[in-house]
Amino acid sequence: xxxxxxxxxxxxxxxxxxALAAAHxxxxxxxYCFLATDLVAGTPDPEPEEAGIRHQWVSRQEFENMVRDARxxxxxxxxxxALLLLHELKS
Length: 91
What we know:
The protein is α+β, with helices and mostly antiparallel strands. It has a single domain, classed as Alpha-Beta Complex (Nucleoside Triphosphate Pyrophosphohydrolase), CATH 3.90.79. The protein is 34% helix and 25% strand. It has helices at 2-7, 60-68, 75-90, and strands at residues 10-21, 30-40. A two-stranded antiparallel sheet has the order 1-2. The radius of gyration is 14 Å and the shape is globular. The two termini are 26 Å apart. The model has no long low-confidence stretch (mean pLDDT 92).
């Protein structure tokens, strides 16, 4: 799983939030978006092409500021956040 491989975190529980098309209209490729909870820290094990990958914790407010300031612009991240907000509305 990418989460453990890239961050070392293992999820005690995964909740499927939805599916995302990777290149809508150009490809049939898609992936699923999950909410990972009950996290346990471990050692990352990145693949060679992921060497040097960085991650950091930010508050929700900081994340939203990063979106507003165009520091986060990728569509997969923004779509995943929209799925999280929809999940929280129904919870």
